[in-house]
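Consortium newsletter contribution from the modelling node. Members have asked for a concrete example of what our holo predictions look like. Here is one, prepared for the S-adenosylmethionine complex that several groups have been discussing at recent meetings.
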Amino acid sequence: MANEPPSDEPPPAPFGVPELLELVAGARRVLDVGCGSGRLTVALARAVAEVTGMDTSADRLAHAVRLAEKAGVQLTLVEADMEEPLPFTDASFDAVTSRLSLMIPRDAVPTLRELGRVLEPRGRIATVVWAALPENPWFDAPREAVRAVLGDERASFARAFGRLGSPRDAERAHRAAGFDDVEGRLLREQVVRADAAEHWRLLATENGHFRRIDAALGEHERRALVVELEARLAPYHADGGLELPRTLVLVTGRRPE
Ligand SMILES: C[S@@+](CC[C@H](N)C(=O)[O-])C[C@H]1O[C@@H](n2cnc3c(N)ncnc32)[C@H](O)[C@@H]1O
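And here is the predicted structure:
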């Protein structure tokens, strides 16, 4: 928070990262698909010998390079599309991870099949995506506030949020792609905010979609948005502030022999 003194504590690991790290512990060569700016990828590289990150965004990969340099770890970064045949030979990884990107393809099964192809027999896959919108009011409420105040068009972003958003749906996709020993579960946490204005301000700082919307707002519109958000977050009042649930679907499986 803005008024807290600086701390020497490392920032907390991004949501879902500790669980993914635990699932691939012991792997030697890991592929992180849709690695973005490398938040999971760099954490993997601290724990695993050889880590490859793959993403379509050259900007985000450049950010991952800087993050890896800062952390003093080695990464191989590849600009490639998870909806195309992957640029890796068969069985070239012991484990594959993906954090918050497998919901992007309209049908994840072809991508998951490709991930199976590049895994060794009995290799591990571990993925997380956001759970369905009702499990994620921290995101759903502000986007619906944008819709109410600014209209449908301004709220038409992150439409894949919530795809594969239950353990059953995500498990089904992994099984359809040929994985064995598939198990899915929900991971839950709460974000604590003083009020709706703080939630909006932090979203507009941390999330590109909300940052772009906020940058185009006049003062009057921003006030109207926060009033709308206040009403939508009313069910989450606790201890004089807000406690907003956030939920991920975590799935793991193995490539068959
Ligand atoms: C929400 S970000 C998640 C990034 C990162 N995994 C993390 O945990 O912070 C989704 C990422 O998927 C990438 N992406 C989108 N479509 C893709 C595709 N077809 N192939 C590979 N990456 C893609 C985006 O560029 C973005 O970096």
